[in-house]
Specification:
By secondary structure, the chain is mainly alpha-helical. It has one domain (20-91). The chain is built from 4 helices and 2 strands; from the N terminus they run ββαααα. A hairpin with a 2-residue loop joins strand 1 and strand 2. The longest helix has 16 residues, at 76-91. The protein is globular.
Length: 92
Amino acid sequence: MPDCSRQPGLMRRRFRLWTGASYLLAMKCMAARAADAETAGDKSDIMVLIKNLGLKTEEEVMEKVTRFFTVERILPKTQFMIHEIMTELRQG
C-alpha cells in the first residue's frame, strides 16, 4: 500500500480532492439542483460562491461556467438559476 500521508489530496482510507472556488461554482451551476423535502439543492451554495468570488453580473458567472464547460452543455435550468440568484443578490 502506498504511503498516502505524503501525497497531497490523499488520506488513509479516503480520497480528498481540493479544488478552486471557480470550478466548484461551475459544477454547482451545471447541477442546478432545486431544493426538495430531502435536500437543500445548490442555490445557497452557488450564492456563497458568487459572493466569495466577487462576481457582480450573470455574464461573470457564465464566464466561470464556460471556462470548464462548453456552452452547448449548459442547460436552461442552469441559466435560469443563475438569473434568479443574481436578481436576488441585486435586490439585497
